[in-house]
Amino acid sequence: MYNFTALPPLSLYIHVPWCVRKCPYCDFNSHKSPDQIPEDAYIDALIRDLEQEVPLIWGRTVTSIFIGGGTPSLLSAEAYDRLFSAIRALLPLSSQAEITLEANPGTFEQERFADYLALGINRLSIGIQSFDDQALQALGRIHDKDQAIKAVETAHKVGFENFNLDLMFGLPHQTASKAAHDVNTAIALEPTHISYYQLTLEPNTLFYQQPPTLPDEDPIIDWQIDSQQLLAEAGYRQYEVSAYAKENKRCQHNLNYWQFGDYLGIGAGAHGKISDAAQQSITRRSKQKQPQAFIDTAGTDKVLLSDEKISRKDIGFEFMLNALRLTDGFPTPLFYQHAGVPISHIDKALEQAQHEGLLERNIHFIKPTEKGQRYLNSLIELFLPQ
Fold this sequence. Notes:
The protein folds into two domains: 246 residues, tm_1862 like domain (pyruvate-formate lyase- activating enzyme, Alpha-Beta Horseshoe); 53 residues, no CATH class. By secondary structure, it is α/β, with parallel strands linked by helices.
C-alpha cells in the first residue's frame, strides 16, 4: 500500500482528562475533576497503556512529549516522576527532547512549576486566553488577570526558558483596544511562543447550545491583522495558522503533527498515528474517553475506541490537512517520506490549487500563497478523495 524508505519522527502524547471546571467553549475530552483525583490509579493506567503501545514502535526514538488535557498541572510532580521513570524505561528518549506540559494559572498549580522543571519538563503551555477579567469570566475561566500574570512571572522565576501562552480573540465584550491590550500584555511578559486564535463555537459545547454575544466578524478580522503586526514587530514570527514563535522556539511537538509525523497517544481519549514499515501501513488509534473506563481497560484491547488504517486514497488529504497549516509549507520530498506515496499521487489537486492561486510549488517546496492561507479550508478541500 505504501513505500516507506524511512519512518517519520515519533512523538508521545499524554492526555490528562480532568479540569477544575469545564469551560463552555471547550470541545476537548475534559471532565470536571472529582474531589479527589485518582492520581495513582491513573498513572498506573497510563503506564499499562504505554506498555501495550510500545511493540508498535520498537526501537524508535521519541523526539518530543506533550502532556495535554484537561489540566495536566492538576497532577503532582510525584505522579509525573513515576510516569517519566516508566517512559524512560520503556522508550528511547532523545536527549534533546522537547517535553511540554499544559498548565492553567492558579496559585495551587504554580507552586509545582519548579518541581516540573526539575523532572525534565522543559516547556510549559499556559492557558491564559485573556488578560481581561470580564472576558475571563465570560469564558468560564477560574483565574483572573493577576493570576495569569503571576503564573507567567513564576515560570520565568523558576527557570523555564521556553514556554507558550494561549491567547484568544473575538471574545464576548471584546473591543479593538481590549484585543490589542491582550496581545501587548502577552508580549511584555516575554514568552518564547504565543498561540493566538479566534474563539469558535464548537459543537458539543455549552457555547454552541447557548451562544454568547460575540463581536461582528469584520472588526475581528481587523483586530487579528493588527495583532499579527504587533507580534511580528516584537519578533514573533507566524509559522502556522495560530502559532507565533521567537527564533528557534517553534513547538517541535506540534510541528511533528503538522508535518505528518508519527505519535503514540496514551490516556483517556488520546489519539495516535503510527506508520509501520513492515506492514507498509499507517494506523490511527484512539482510547476510551471516560476516565474511569480508561483506567479499567488500560493494558487490554478494550481500551481502544478505534483502530483504523488510513487508506491510500485518503492519504493525500490526510497529509495536506496538516501540512498546509504551515505558512512556509513543506519540502516537496517530505510528502513521499511521511506519506509513503509519490507526490504524483496528488498532482491533479496540486495543479488545481496552483491554477486558483492558492498554492506555490516547485521541486523543492510546496506552500500556500497568501490567498491560500486566507482560504485555507477551500485549499484543503481540493485534496479530498474523488
